[in-house]
Amino acid sequence: MSQLTNHIKQLREFRGLSQAELARRLGTTSSTVSRLEAGERRLSQSYISSISQALGVEPAEIIGASANSGAKAGASAGAAGDHRLIPVVGAVSDTAWAIPATAATPPRIPVLPSPQVARLSHSGYKVLDGAGLALTGAGGYVIAVPFGAMRKTPLEGDWIVLRSREGRMERHALVTGHTDAAGAYAMIDGARLDLGPIHEPVGLVVAIYREL
């Protein structure tokens, strides 16, 4: 049987939370959170349920056989060409898009926990390794989502988020959406990216959320 590990620290840091803030949400102490993250305290079912609610994730995302098992499972389930599936923790809201071009970009991507948030399955996210390399440099990811999960055409001023392998934002680029006789396309740092038919999984994910 594979040894179970917990991903509390990874999930907490991805949401920009301190141990103290997570402890406050759980009604416990920072010391307890630290011990839970380190595996020094048993994760009971009630703790798993409480932590998943506090972090806005599914209970299964708290524990797993390994940190990379989701990525391997996703890759084997739907890899095609230079696309590779990876697990992305969190959710996307269709009401969280209007970010002005002058808005300050946060160092990490906060999650918007809301009843209106539309949770996408991990298989809905694809990583464009080939296209991403030109934009991010070595080790960078461009994360894309099917248009059908968001909207049918891109909007001007959208942000495309380029994330590193550790789930942290490496850099970002302003994406402007356009439509012509050939279909929808986007301009990223002056370069054209053809988006294709709306049913093709090549949409742009915009993952700069409103601050909580």
Question: Which features does this protein show?
Answer:
212 residues, alpha+beta, 434 Repressor (Amino-terminal Domain), 2 domains, seven-stranded antiparallel beta sheet, two-stranded antiparallel sheet, 9 strands, TransReg_Diox_bact_type, Lambda_DNA-bd_dom_sf
Distance between the termini: 40 Å
Beta-strand percentage range: 15-25%
For the report, how would you describe the main beta sheet? 7 strands, antiparallel
Number of strands: 9
What integer is the average pLDDT? Answer: 51
- As laid out across the biggest beta sheet, the strand order is 3-4-5-6-7-8-9
Main structural class: alpha+beta
Total domains:
2
What low-confidence regions span 5 or more consecutive residues with pLDDT below 50?
A: 65-175, 195-212
Shape annotation: elongated
- Number of DSSP helices? 6
Query: Helix and strand string, N-terminal first?
Result: EHHHHEHEEHEEEEE
The gyration radius over C-alpha positions equals: 18 Å
Fraction of residues in H or I helices: 25-40%
Structure description:
This protein has 212 residues and is of the alpha+beta class. The protein has two domains: 5-64, lambda repressor-like DNA-binding domains (434 Repressor (Amino-terminal Domain)), CATH 1.10.260; 70-194, no CATH class. The chain contains six helices and nine strands. The chain has helices at 8-14, 19-26, 30-38, 45-55, 69-78, 129-136, and strands at 5-6, 63-64, 83-84, 126-128, 140-144, 158-164, 169-180, 183-188, 191-194. A seven-stranded antiparallel sheet has the order 3-4-5-6-7-8-9. A two-stranded antiparallel sheet has the order 1-2. The chain is elongated and about 60 Å long. Residues 65-175 and 195-212 have low confidence and may be disordered. Pfam families: HTH_3. One of its GO terms (molecular function) is DNA binding. Keywords: DNA-binding.
